[in-house]
Hints:
Bound molecules: flavin mononucleotide
CATH architecture of the largest domain: Alpha-Beta Barrel
Shape: globular
CATH topology of the largest domain: TIM Barrel
Radius of gyration: 19 Å
Strand content: 5-15%
Amino acid sequence: MAAASHASSASGRQGRGISGCGEAVTASSSTGDDERVLRTWLTERFDLQVPVVSAPMAGVSGGALAGAVSAAGGLGLVGWVGPDVDKLKLELVTAAQPGRAFGIGFLAWTMRPGDEQLVDAALEAGASLVCISYGDYEPYVERITSAGAVAATQVGTLDDVRRATDAGVNLLVVRGGEGGGHGRDAVATLPLLQAVLDETDLPVVAAGGIATARGLAAVLAAGAAGGWVGTAFLATHESAYKDGHKDAVVAAGLDASLHSTVFDIGRGSPWPPEFGGRALRNAYSDTWHGREAELRAAPVPTDEPIVWAGQVAGLVKEKRPASEVVAELADAERLLAEVCTRTTGG
Length: 346
Ligand SMILES: Cc1cc2nc3c(=O)[nH]c(=O)nc-3n(C[C@H](O)[C@H](O)[C@H](O)COP(=O)(O)O)c2cc1C
């Protein structure tokens, strides 16, 4: 009981976590219908039924996946890389089609002068969250917030948090090393989340390792406003991942992935080395991981497929519609209600 009341008072103080035990499970949707929701900063800001963001994943989360997640009650994000603004606009139209909030994520290190037009295109199409990560995102923050959208970035250390706060970011995406795709591997999600929630009053969503209602319930109980979920959407019907990649994710176990820079060295990708990437291990990574200096000195190219995915690939059991993933995550509400019942004896 002590733990539960501490959690709710901590989240209340910071105005970003879930409501207290009773309210959390009985609050009705802000649209006035009967659907019960977990209310957090995220659900209130974007009028969501489920406190879940589908992570931006360039080449995987186009408008189809983002739109499907938004239609299902979460916040769908398009993942984007590259200068083609016309192509981007097509994806944005698809993402906006359900008439619900949606957003977009860019990779800062790939952005060049003139790429402001990509951000503007997203804002004009109605994106209500713009996340720019990994590199110099600062020049875009004012543009996003002055358009009335939420500016977010993915952080992997407390130094990243301080930098994002100084830049005026509205939402911190606290991403641990178990997450799929690129990011830091310095700290795992749960230790980082605890430290960041003590460090900041900004709203926080947790990323890396969340694939089921249990994971979502855990980060909500800790004080996060929601989960930022990538790997769990990789094998959905709406994901643009190759079919063979989806099969590999479904077949993967919890220990099948590896965070490394060798994937990028092997394919000649100029990702900044502080952001390694987590992918399913393959013959190339088995050979070269741990021998990065040698490999950088004399690169050995590979065209072996790279299946970017996080540790929770081991929790992805089938290919299915994105709406089913969102619905499964929504069960966090019941799990938290059970905790409340246990701790209050109600
Ligand atoms: C295939 C794949 C591609 C990704 N591409 C991007 C991207 O383009 N931009 C970005 O900010 N994050 C990208 N990410 C990272 C996600 O935004 C997020 O941090 C991560 O998926 C969360 O961890 P999880 O995979 O355990 O859910 C990608 C992740 C994956 C798995």
